[in-house]
Write a structure and sequence with these properties.
By secondary structure, the protein is an alpha+beta fold. The chain has two domains: 77 residues, 2-Layer Sandwich (Pseudouridine synthase), CATH 3.30.2350; 98 residues, Pseudouridine synthase, CATH 3.30.2350. The protein is built from three helices and twelve strands, in the order ββαββαββββββαββ. The protein is globular.
């Protein structure tokens, strides 16, 4: 399957990662096929700067070369990049927008699950907006201010409405062949050209 390259210059490359594909290799021979290994096959100097969950589709940004990896990693670390996701849940609240601020940490007794923990959790902030409502589902725009593991999935769960198709945090009511969570776009300043970059990957659900 060819890689869906959204943008490429001599410094960075952005791709549309399909769902059910790891971002980086996992443990075991059956988990070596991943987005970075496929990309390195075409661009040998491609380097990872962030990840998407295996079952999350959408835009991923990669560096070309070590120096650019450091520069982009700083942008993510300093939260100088804005991310937007589309998610679909069964139900939601009457309000049209809001913010979720549940602190999160890893559940050490049930890895890789993440849980809400007000005492030991790390700050996690997600802004949300209702895009549309129809019978049996609500489409949300999610804008994470932080980048905790499984943040959007656990925040939706903590609000009482897990993302449809989430096999890790969902229940029988939200079972579906694929998780309806997609990374729509990234907004950041190019670390070399200083150009404002707005990169998007079309949602397929």
């Amino acid at each position: 399957m060819p890689i869906d390259i959204i943008f490429r210059d001599e410094y960075i490359v952005a791709v549309n990662k399909p769902q059910a594909l790891l971002s980086v290799p996992g443990l075991g021979v059956d988990k070596q096929d991943c987005m970075i290994s496929r990309l390195v096959g075409e661009i040998p100097e491609a380097k990872v700067v962030h990840r998407l969950d295996c079952y999350t589709s959408g835009i991923m940004l990669f560096a070309i070369g070590i120096e650019m990896q450091r520069a982009l990693s700083r942008i993510f670390h300093d939260r100088k990049i804005k991310k937007q996701y589309t998610a679909v849940v069964r139900e939601w609240f009457d309000e049209t927008e809001g913010v979720i601020k549940f602190p999160l940490r890893c559940d050490i007794d049930n890895r890789p699950h993440q849980i809400v923990d007000y005492e030991h959790g790390k700050a996690a902030v997600t802004y949300w907006q209702v895009l549309s409502r129809q019978e049996g589902s609500v489409r949300l725009l999610l804008k994470p201010e932080t980048g905790r593991t499984h943040q959007l999935r656990v925040h939706c769960l903590a609000m009482g409405h897990p993302i449809i198709g989430d096999g890790l945090y969902g229940n029988d009511e939200v079972k579906q062949p694929r998780m309806l969570l997609h990374a729509d776009n990234l907004l950041f300043q190019h670390p070399v050209t200083a150009e404002e970059m707005y990169l998007s990957a079309v949602c397929d659900f």
